[in-house]
């Protein structure tokens, strides 16, 4: 079973994403903010990280930078979710180390399609 770390501060959206992914057979570990995501992250444990851009304590960008600076942190795939869909923001997110970007709002079907593409690439 593929394992995903989801960091999203909006509880309703986090619940929707978790339910959607679990219905497709993924194991999901939840974090409500950037600090919790960092506390839960162990290199090699997760197949994918899904991070919200704007979170308390540490933003998604902060989390990416910290993870990418760790040994084996460069191997995990990262999908950033953001309501900021301007091209310059997307570029900034990808330059920080995210592998993929998805703008909010998104449909659960599109999320599953994207996650499956990412997992299949790995």
From TrEMBL:
SUPFAM superfamilies: CheY-like. GO terms for biological process: phosphorelay signal transduction system. The keyword Phosphoprotein applies. GO terms for molecular function: DNA binding. PROSITE patterns: RESPONSE_REGULATORY (PS50110). It holds the Pfam family Response_reg. The keyword Transcription regulation applies. This is Response regulator.
């Amino acid at each position: 079973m593929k394992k995903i770390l989801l960091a999203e501060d909006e509880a309703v959206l986090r619940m929707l994403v978790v339910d959607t992914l679990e219905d497709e057979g993924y194991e999901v570990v939840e974090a409500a903010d950037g600090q919790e995501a960092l506390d839960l992250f162990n290199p090699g444990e997760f197949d994918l990280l899904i991070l919200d851009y704007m979170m308390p304590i540490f933003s998604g960008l902060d989390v990416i930078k910290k993870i990418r600076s760790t040994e084996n942190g460069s191997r995990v795939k990262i999908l950033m979710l953001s309501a900021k869909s301007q091209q310059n923001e997307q570029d900034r997110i990808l330059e920080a180390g995210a592998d993929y970007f998805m703008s909010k709002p998104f449909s659960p079907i599109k999320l599953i399609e994207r996650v499956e593409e990412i997992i299949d690439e790995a």
